[in-house]
Request: fold
Amino acid sequence: MSSQMFLVALSFAYFAKALSGSYMKSTITQLERRFDIPSYLIGVIDGSFEIGNLLVIAFVSYFGAKLHRPKIIAVGCVLMSIGTFIIALPHFIIGRYEFETSARRIVNSTLNVSPCAVGSSADLTQGGKLPEVPATGCEGESNLSMWIYVLLGNVLRGIGETPVQPLGISYIDDFTTEENAALYVGCVQTISVVGPVFGYLLGSLCAKIYVDIGFVKMETITITPADARWVGAWWLGYLIAGVITLLSAIPFWFLPRSLNVKHLPTGVGCPLTVIYPPADFFPTLRTLLGHPVYLTYLCVTIIQLNSLIGMVTYKPKYIEQHFRQSASKANFLMGVINIPAVALGMFSGGLLMKRLKLNIMGAARFAFGTSLIGYVLSLFFFAMSCENAKVAGVTLSYNSVDRISYDKHPVFTACNSDCFCSASDWDPVCGENGITYVSPCLAGCTDSAGSGKNTVFSNCSCVGVAGNFTASTGQCPHKDDCDRMFPYFLALSVITSFIISLGGTPGYMLLIRNDYSNFSGQRLHSLTLQLMSGIPAPIYFGAIIDSTCLKWGQKRCGGIGACRIYNTTSYRIAYLGLTLSLRTISFIICIPGFILLSRQLKKEEENAINKALANGGTELEALRKEEFIISNSDQMSDNSTDRETRL
Reply:
């Protein structure tokens, strides 16, 4: 009964940690906008989880099995919960979210404001910006960036997550029968796949809700969830995830240190957490890295995982920016479509491997083949493009609004020369001519009517439509081409995710079934993947994405904030190109890997044959001796009979 209780508790803990981890992935754009940071810093925050994991993995691996494992897991769940609460903490200490807008500086007025302030471009600085005026409240603002709390909270989450998997699985292995152990581990792994689905769905729900819901009048908010400045209630999901993780710790406090193991058959009860003593670490490491097949496998999986982590981390952002979908919809699609396709692919891969009875070489070929098919299909993503948004002064010239160009365009021109505008603000409006302008001021609008999302700007000299010079809040949709292409993108995304995941289980079996399939080899593999894939991949993927930004936001107290609009063509090429380039490198490394694996298997087969022949020769010699003895015995018996007959 206690083993079943432990199974339920461990499954819940797996669900909680998977939910909070996937929710972190779903909030990257919300965190970028809320803390006005670039994508590469989001990558640092995302990778900090692995850093926390690595800080204590050696301690957990060496001492975990010697201590009270359920209580160690309980402590880990509590730490994960505290870390999750710390991530949400900045929301409660930095005040209300103030998105940048060109109209917010006009105060002491109850009338509709004029976006085009009286002045001229001569009043601007040489860089085309308004003279620097410190924002209210900046003097007392801490120099410590609030995103540091998010990073520290994620590190603590990584520390807390460390004992859950190794100690939980070893506890099952130690105190259940061999048949039940396999079943229990399968149940736990299944639950861990369900967690990300709910994590992304929670991210979708929270992204719909405005960040300061309950503290502001929503009718005064001029932006929608599709706006590049929109920030959802990211903190709410972390509070929910923190509570769930805290609840998952409770059962472990009441579970025993060990269970009755008298009924277990011989061989069951070998803890998975035993590692080599520190003195044996470097000799073991040298032996493993000196194994050519193991080293090749390690290199291939590191590169493949870099590609996978970078792609998954920024896929919701890619859907948002490239296909102009809201963060809520992007997260919903990840949770409902992509994650189930991956889970089904991994399960089907294991089933096919069992049905086809694949050996090591068969598993390697199967994993390589599915990865190669997914790679070829992924090339079609390059053709699924959307035209960049038409933004005057960014992707279009004011003098030529029919042709998109990524040259440096001035935002000041004759039509807004009488306005006292800032070039750094991002408060887009959609003109009646179908062109987006960076702000109503830069559109030359002199009057406005209405409030909130229903504000309409009029007398916009840059719009230039005969008889109608109005503009509305927000970017122009221009989604016709994207709406037609998006379903094909989703369908191809599901197919490629499923096919690539088919090779996941057979690929992992290469590590398990080979002659380096001891705990040390598996642990080194896991640690290396965390260190060389989990930490760096989100950072350099984010840095490359940042390089495609066309218009950076402005922080409230000065400085560059989050990106507002990207060059979608460059974004697509950089994101997909880096993902597929890494996989190309891994395929090239696979070629010598197959040769080495083939030689190793051939050598093992020859050794097995020689051993069998040697054993067979020994047995044949023994058989011959036995036949000789029997023959002599029969001959002596015949001689005795002849003598008796003669007598």
The CA atoms of residues 81 and 242 lie 5 Å apart.
